[in-house]
Amino acid sequence: MVIPPSSSPASPSLEPPDQVSPDLISPTGAEIDAADRRAREWVFQASGALPIGSDSHRDASCRMFSDTFNPYKPSIIAWPKLEPDALQRLTSLPIWDIAVRTETKARARMLAYAASVDDPAWREAIGRNGWEEGRHKEVLSNLVASYGISLAPEPPDRLPDDPEWGYLVTGYSECIDSFFAFGLFEVARRSGYFPAALVDTFEPVIQEEARHILLFANWLAWHRKRLGVWARIRFEFRVARAWAFLAWERIGLARTMEGGEQPATDNNFTLTGSKAVSDVDISPLALMAVCLSENERRFAGYDPRLLRPTTTPALARLAARVGRLFWRGAAAEAMKPATS
């Protein structure tokens, strides 16, 4: 599905790529298919290695983000009509408030960091990423309006004093949430719990998240490599602090949910939401396997010389191995003959 960008405010540097003039045309079926392929498959034309931290690494990363831009326009997405049971399942998902709020915060933090970056290529790419986060919010806003989902008023948001910190937390948060969202989206598709037309309509947004975290992973590696020794040490402490912050944020919100103070939102949905997107009971180990498989598939079409996000998949693999060991231990214990 290819639709031109929305009327969300953006600087001239955030206009869609030159190969598409989305505000002036109605895309044909061929143009829709071409843009969808372009968003999923990309190889840097220059041959040879892309040393981490080099100009060629930066150029490939930023060029990927520009070339794979999908010019869909949220305002003309045709949200399919749902049967009453499917509509009830969709409207009962406890994610809509936090999803819209998250996109608002991500847009603001990415645009703020982009404005602080000296390198023009990264400034353009990260700024475009922020613009796309604003478009995601518009998609979600139109979805909830189309299906009569009520949202609580968005609370006021304050940007962090340090734009880099805001971008780090936002980027790592997207890496976590996108990894599990890939799996949950595939579980929903396989189960047929939601109509195929609804799943297909939302597909470009899910793939766009893969592009976002691919850009973040390569910016992170490039930025690290360019730092001096002491700056690198300080930066690694900051990375550790970002992970600790995200862990505490999710634990804190989970406690709030258990206490019943905030029943309408769930920031941990991407980790816990398999039962909400399927009528088949899927074990955590099985869900982890789907997430890992989908994570690989989502990135398979991009130049293998670009770095992929690694931390969340590595933690998932570790959790799966440990889980299998415990499951085997429990199964072996259950097989032991009873003693009188």
In CATH, what is the class?
Mainly Alpha
Assembly state of the chains shown: single chain
Structural class: mainly alpha
Radius of gyration: 21 Å
How would you characterize the largest beta sheet? none
CATH architecture term: Orthogonal Bundle
What coarse outline follows from CA principal-axis ratios? Answer: globular
Instruction: Count all strands and give the number.
Output: 0
Could you estimate the helical fraction of the residues in percent?
55-70%
List the helices and strands and how they pair.
Layout: H1 29-40, H2 55-67, H3 84-91, H4 96-116, H5 120-146, H6 163-191, H7 196-226, H8 229-258, H9 269-272, H10 284-299, H11 311-335
Q: Could you explain how this protein is built, in words?
A:
This protein has one domain (about 10-40, about 55-300): Ribonucleotide Reductase, subunit A (Orthogonal Bundle). The N and C termini lie far apart (about 65 Å). The protein is built from eleven helices and no strands. The chain is globular. Helix 2 (about 55-65) runs parallel beside helix 5 (about 120-145), helix 5 (about 120-145) packs antiparallel against helix 7 (about 195-225) and helix 6 (about 165-190) packs antiparallel against helix 7. With about 350 residues, it is mainly α. Helix content is about 65%, strand content about 0%.
